[in-house]
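Subject: Protein record for review, amino acid sequence with backbone structure tokens
Why sent: The fold of this protein is of interest and is recorded here as tokens.
Enclosed: The protein record, placed directly beneath this head.
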Amino acid sequence: MKKILVTGGAGFIGSHLCDRLLESGNEVTCLDNLYTGSITNIKHLVGKPGFRLLKRDVTKTGHIECDEIYNLACPASPVHYQNDPVKTIWTSVGGAVRTLEIARKNNARILQASTSEVYGDPDVHPQTESYRGNVSTTGPRSCYDEGKRCAETLFMNYHTHEGVKIRIIRIFNTYGPRMRDDDGRVVSNFIVQALKGEDLTIFGDGSQTRSFQYVTDLIDAMVKVMQTDDSFTGPVNIGNPAEFTIAELARKIIKITGSASGIVYRPLPHDDPRQRQPDISLARSVLGWKPVTELGEGLELTIDFFKKQYKL
């Protein structure tokens, strides 16, 4: 049994990770200031043996005894991370320093949940880990993109100079139950609009692409990464390489929901990536991992969640 700290553990992805780690017989400390996380996501865990909730900001937390750390603390959707960009940067950078110090003092393994956004609006397709990205330092998304890029740098420096046992994963678009209905992500936006009978809003002409990963596939990969030999630091792409246009996603959700919704088009936001597809060759070879949930199957499960959770 291990003592595991999950920062951002009350969030969409973090809560699923807490589930998996508890099911495996570990003691789990969920640290979350509930800025974008929700008690609803973990209410079934509160009071269970081995689970502890700490309502704290990751940048201000003190020392915590642990064997492993999963650092997920940071707003991850544009509507939330652009709401307070300075807080977003500091959560990524200050939170990285704080959790790395906890890892150093505990001689603990630590995983950084980085993002495909470090590639920006990519000139290379699909994106490999060796690609350095095409990222604006001044655009509206830069608070998140550059915060995550700096966090990767901090992790590598702590590994090189302090001997901290790190892992860095770059998460591509992930969806599933426990997404918020107001987070501004394309999957949740489309599902909510379709279930309400509203027209689905596409920004741009709908030809831009994304690769959508179901949340349990991501959790499988995260656990596998943590179990690798300490010589493997990453970064490693974790995503589903099946690529879809935004227009294809909209039509698929309308079909699954049986909605009479139409589609309307709005101008593309500044710095919105044109293409996003992971090369997961490294994850396949090192982790023996690949996603197993097809988009249609995952969407059905997610739509069912939204129907029940939000009474849609």
User: Anything to note?
Assistant: The first strand starts at residue 3 and ends at 7. The domain at 3-175+214-239+277-291 is CATH 3.40.50.720 (Rossmann fold).
